[in-house]
Predict the structure.
Amino acid sequence: MADELLTPKQVHADYGFNPQTLANWRWMSMGPDFIKTTPGRAGRIKYRRSAIEKWLDAQTVGTGGAAA
């Protein structure tokens, strides 16, 4: 089964991250990995659902663990 590709708007709907926040993260080279399907500044951006889930797992801080 293929990994679902999401637009920034779909990421916002499913996970609550504002599309502008995602754009800022891309510019700062942080946040979940993404795919740029067309060249240039206005290129189309997609996110693999698995990349978002993996990134969220990496951001998770366990209770009783190190300070965030």
About this structure: The CA atoms of residues 1 and 50 lie 12 Å apart. The chain has one domain: 5-59.
